[in-house]
Amino acid sequence: MSNVVFSARPRTDFGSTKSANLRKQGRVPGVIYGKGETIHIDLDQKELSGGLRTISESTIVRVTVDGAAHDAFVKSTQRNIQDGNILHVDFYEIEMGKLLRARVSLHISGNPIGVREGGVLETPLHDIEVECFPKDLPARVNVDISALGANQSIHVRDLALGEGVKLISAEDQVVALVKFAKSEAASTAETADAAPAAAKDAKAGEKS
Question: Cα(154)–Cα(140) distance, rounded to whole angstroms?
Fold first, then answer.
C-alpha cells in the first residue's frame, strides 16, 4: 500500500458559497464514501496536489479525519479548466481485509529488438483488472519489452503479477506487439521499380 497520507477536516457547511470560501482559504472540499455513511471533508490544496502527483488510480491512500484513518482510492477529481486547481475530490473507502477488484495501469519500458530492426511497436492496452486483498494490490504492473522481436507480442497472460493477485482481464489481450515493416517497405520498393519497366514495355508495344 502507498505511504501517501492526507490530513482532512470534517465539513458540516455545504453549498456553492461555502465551497468557494473554502477554496479561497486554500482548502479543497471532498467526500469519502463506499463504507458506511458518506463523510464530508476538506483538505489542504497544496498537500492534496502534491500527493496526487505521486499516485495512480489504483493506489490506496490513507485519509485521516479527527484521528480516524480511512484507506481509500482517489476515485475522481474535479479541476478548474483555467488554472488546473482541484475543485473537489472523491475518495472511495475500502476494507483492508476484504477482496477487491481494481484496474491497475501497465508501465511499458525498454526498446524492443524488433523496433531496432525496423519494426513498428504497438501498445493497445494500458491497464488490466485484477482481484486481490488491498495489501497485495500493485500500484502498477511493469512490462519490459526489450526482448520483443519482430512479429512477436506480449499478452496479458504473460504478465508477472504479485503473489495473491488474481487476473480478471481476458488473458488473450495484447499488451505490446512489434509489426515487421521491412517486408512492406521492400514490397513497396519492388512495386515502384516495376512501374517504370511496365511503362517502358507499354510504350514499346505502342511503337510496334
Answer: 17
